[in-house]
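Please, structure for the following, as tokens.
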Amino acid sequence: MRTHTKVVSFIAIGVCIGSVIWFGLLGRAQVSQTNPTHQTISTLPPIKNCTEHIKLIKAELVDQGGSQVAALEVENEAYVGVISISVEQLVNREKHSTVESGFTPDQPPLTVIRPSETKTITLGNLGAKAPIRIGGVIFADGTEEGCGSSLKSMRELKDFHMNKGGKQK
């Protein structure tokens, strides 16, 4: 009789775990499919700047190919050129970012924003309430400014671009 109750209890526990997985995880997946991933927003989310020498000149919400994007015009106020800049937004635990980078495997880095010049950077997949962040910048003299997570992503991208097509060890 004890064996019978053990078997029944293991089956009951298995059914409970299976129900939680089925309704908990798969139910959320079905709900996310009913919500559109690209929502239409009426105003641009707030913009934060983690850098000292990059100034936001103009920000607007534009329609680009049927989807909304944020167009940020930024100015380099430093005395050296920018070779990489990151603009990002964290929406529903997903990081959406645009990194303008001048790194190449076979040449010195190219300047993407010269001193005192402006550049327009676009960012898609916008969330309505999550702030957009000018996350980080790498200058031609090797100095960096910005938030730690942005700079980490930019360094990883730099390593990827610098080693791509390079000599294999």
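Residues 2-34 form the longest helix (33 residues). The longest strand covers residues 54-64.
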